[in-house]
Design a protein that fits this description.
The protein has a single domain, classed as Cytochrome p450. The radius of gyration is 21 Å and the shape is globular. The relative contact order is 0.18. 48% of the residues lie in helices and 10% in strands. The chain has 16 helices and 13 strands. The protein has a six-stranded mixed beta sheet with strand order 1-2-3-9-6-4. Strands 5-13-10 form a three-stranded antiparallel beta sheet. It is an alpha+beta fold.
């Protein structure tokens, strides 16, 4: 296996990681990423295989588990009950309960709301250059998830701050300050949701929190800690991913001058999938090996970690012709942006719905939208999203 060095906080890599992925893929399905001290899957085949191989998973092997540092206790407490960090049988139970509440009917019921919200936000666009990330891309998912959960929309600034501080824990650039902010956010978010869940127990409504409270599978229900962790996961994962999917997509479209036909009802599904493939919001997920395994010419020992490079898998020339070219007319082939296997993103249908509506409305209403200054990606790998996107209408 080839050993390669690439700092995930190097400014050139932060702005454009794809040339490194292309070089790494020349050495096979896996390479050893020296900065992360683990193998990394870089081909579409390897990433998809490892996502679906039950001999790998997210949960830390029991003999490697530790309480963690005391200053991170509030954040670790949320993580301990998260669907994202669980494996069967715990994952099977949690996901079944969540899916009983997070139904396709609940998602499609948001369509008119997302459409109206998109128009309302566009009507507030200023005549001078502005950051469309804050004025549009951020608001679509956070307001939508507030409405879905049944949380007051006026709480969205707090939810955004808590979400941002918590997910910053996954960034290569994290510091002790990052950890302290994540712990504070976790404590405040947990306190708010715990109080709100108790309100909904006494006063049920037609919202996701009420449905999560009532969800039952074989006599099992979600505990209070699981309810809190699930609501936090839906906001954190849904908000971060959709904000950057929209931002990266708008940036790409404006840079390349994509024709408005790409956003017509007949074409929008392909355009959304190409946005997700070409410049996804999440570039790395890690897995633990649960047994000694020989795969892709590498021997894993139980407890070894492997990095699955979703952004690299999406540019594999074995699967997509001219993968570094944005082509919204491509035939849809399942990309890796939402993961795969048991941990395939539960919010994928909602994210796609938000993107379809928001992008269609934006480019219909703002046909002359253009970049006002060069876009800049934030130093937040393994996420890949813009720090701002200054545009003019």
């Amino acid at each position: 296996m080839k050993t390669l060095s690439q700092s995930p906080v190097d400014p050139d890599f932060v702005q454009n990681p794809y040339p490194f992925y292309d070089r790494a893929r020349e050495h096979g399905d896996l390479f050893y990423w020296s900065e992360y001290k683990m193998p990394a899957a870089v081909s579409h085949k390897a990433v998809q295989t490892l996502l679906k191989d039950r001999r790998f998973g997210r949960e830390v092997p029991v003999e490697m588990q530790s309480p963690g540092p005391s200053h991170l206790a509030p954040w670790l407490a949320v993580e301990a009950h998260s669907l994202l960090e669980a494996e069967p049988p715990r994952h099977t139970r949690l996901r079944a309960l969540v899916m009983r509440a997070f139904t396709s009917r609940a998602i499609t019921g948001l369509e008119d709301s997302i459409y109206d919200l998109s128009h309302s936000l566009i009507e507030q666009f200023p005549a001078t250059p502005f950051d469309i990330l804050g004025g549009f891309c951020t608001q679509i998912p956070v307001v939508t998830i507030c409405r879905l959960l049944g949380v007051p929309e006026e709480k969205s600034p707090d939810l955004l701050r808590w979400s941002h501080d918590m997910v910053a824990m996954y960034q290569a650039s994290k510091t002790r300050e990052t950890e302290d902010n994540a712990a504070t956010a976790s404590r405040d978010f947990t306190a708010f949701l715990s109080s709100y869940i108790e309100m909904r127990r006494d006063d049920p409504r037609d919202d996701l929190i009420t449905r999560l409270i009532e969800a039952e599978e074989h006599g099992e229900k979600l505990s209070k800690e699981e309810l809190v962790a699930t609501c936090i996961l839906l906001l954190n994962a849904g908000h971060e991913a959709t904000v950057h999917s929209l931002g990266n997509g708008i940036k790409t479209v404006l840079e390349l001058g994509i024709h408005k036909d790409a956003f017509s009802p007949d074409a929008i599904d392909k355009t959304v999938e190409e946005v997700l493939r070409f410049d996804p919001p999440l570039h790395m997920f890690t897995r633990y090996a649960y047994e000694d395994i020989e795969i892709f010419n590498h021997s894993f020992k139980r407890g070894d970690q492997v990095a699955l490079l979703l952004g690299a898998a999406n540019r594999d020339p074995v699967v997509w012709a001219n993968p570094n070219t944005f082509d919204p007319t491509r035939t849809i082939v399942t990309n890796s942006s939402f993961g795969g296997g048991l941990h395939f993103c539960v919010g994928a249908p909602l994210a796609r719905l938000e993107m379809r509506i928001a992008l269609s409305v934006l480019f219909e209403r703002c046909p002359n939208l253009r970049l006002s200054k060069g876009p800049d990606y934030s130093n937040s790998y393994h996420f890949h999203g813009l720090s701002q996107l200054i545009v003019e209408v």
